[in-house]
Amino acid sequence: MSNRIVVGAITGAFGVKGEVRLKSFCANPEDIAGYSPLFDKQGTEYTVKITQTVKGGFAARLSGIRFKDQADALRGVQLFADRNLLPQLPDDEYYYSDLIGLDVLDTGGAVLGKVAAVDNHGAGDILEIRGPGLKGSVLMPFTQSAVPTVDLTARRIIVDPPDGVFPEPKT
Q1: pLDDT score, position 170
Q2: Measuring CA to CA, which residue among 113, 107, 114, 102 is closest to residue 158?
Q3: φ and ψ at 155, to 5 degrees?
Q4: Which of 35, 37, 109, 118 has the fewest CB atoms within 10 Å around its CB?
Q5: Beta carbons within 8 Å of 72's beta carbon, 6+ residues apart
Q6: CA 37 to chain centre
Q7: How many CA atoms lie within 13 A of 34 on its CB side?
């Protein structure tokens, strides 16, 4: 799955003829159909044809889905595109999947943990960091000031967290 990137999700059925509600995670939402075929986590392949714009996304036809109950069964399924079909990003932009698993170090080189997830709930990207000495996850804004360096080649990011985000090291 590492050569595929999540580009959308099925949020339910649309109508009674097997169409699905499709939420796009693409910068240009309608581009999702151009990355077809899309795949689910199990590798099932779907060709996608957008039929109309609806609140929160699109109504779409997926190959092999002809009935409402089939569309209902796909609710929550994430759809992935082959990475080579996606655009090359500028130097300061990243696909979330490229950040997950990167080592997180502070500006002094101390290891703080690893990126466990990247989320965006509308106010900007947030890194979820887990690691030794942390009682759960630490959430960091993914901004230039908080994350000055992302080095995909070295598989690490350097963070300059605001005071109190990470526990103070014990001396």
Answers
A1: 59
A2: 107
A3: 60, 45
A4: 109
A5: 12, 13
A6: 18
A7: 10
The amino acid at 129: I
Give, as one character, the DSSP assignment of residue 131. Answer: -
* CA 133 centroid distance within chain: 26
pLDDT band at residue 95 using 50, 70 and 90 as cut-offs: confident
The residues with which 9 forms a beta bridge, in sequence order, are 23, 78
CB 128 within 8 A of CB 136: no
Strands 78-82 and 4-14: antiparallel
- 18 φ/ψ angles, rounded to the nearest 5 degrees: 90, 5
Per the CB < 8 A criterion, the answer to whether 31 and 8 are in contact is no
pLDDT of 171: 54
Q: d(Cα 31, Cα 80) in Å, to the nearest integer?
A: 13
Q: Which residue has the tokens 């714009």?
A: 53
**Average pLDDT for 70-97:** 90
32, 80 contact by CB (below 8 A): no
